[in-house]
Amino acid sequence: MRPCATPASPQPNLDRRVGQLSGGEAILVATAGLRLRTAPITLLDEPANNLDRDHRDHLGRLVSGWTGTLIVVSHDTALLELMDDTAELHDGALSVFGGPYSAYQEHLEHLEQAAAQQAERAAEQVVKTEKRQRVAAERSWRVAPGTPGRTSRTRANPRS
Asked: How many alpha carbons fall within 13 Å on the CB side of residue 156?
């Protein structure tokens, strides 16, 4: 990798101060510096923000060759595809899934499908129960002729 080299300027200018670097170049220099420190654990928080495609590619190469533990917090799905594991922090709980982001998404889709199927089965059961209750209620209102409790009303003949 050539630090600070861009497609517009293929030769890096190593004499520039950090304050003269573009945002993408500064992120890449900082990330390269973290990699050189070989810390046992490194956290990158949204490292791909404000990077153009070429700088994202450089970042991807840096991440792919990382030694040690690298924790990346990002919305960049291409960057998350490079991860060995995917974790989700939701409602104060951390869930870890072994595999890149696409495998995690497939896992979530399967969970959602299973939940939808369970909800469908539960709804069908409710409908069956309500139907049985309705049929039982209708039967209790229909009593056979001559059965105690059944009365018939006849009209009195006004002429008699």
From this structure: 3
Q: Compute CA distances 135 → 34, 126, 140, 145, 150, whole Å.
A: 72, 14, 9, 19, 20
Is the model's pLDDT at 31 over the cut of 90?
no
Residues 24, 150: Cα–Cα separation, whole Å: 89
Distance CA 18, CA 16 (A): 7
The pLDDT tens digits of the residues spanning 56-92 come to 998 899 888 888 899 999 999 999 999 999 998 889 9
* Second CATH level (architecture) for the domain 18-83: 3-Layer(aba) Sandwich (3.40)
Q: What 3-state DSSP class applies to 43?
A: strand
In angstroms, the CA 36 to CA 74 distance is 22
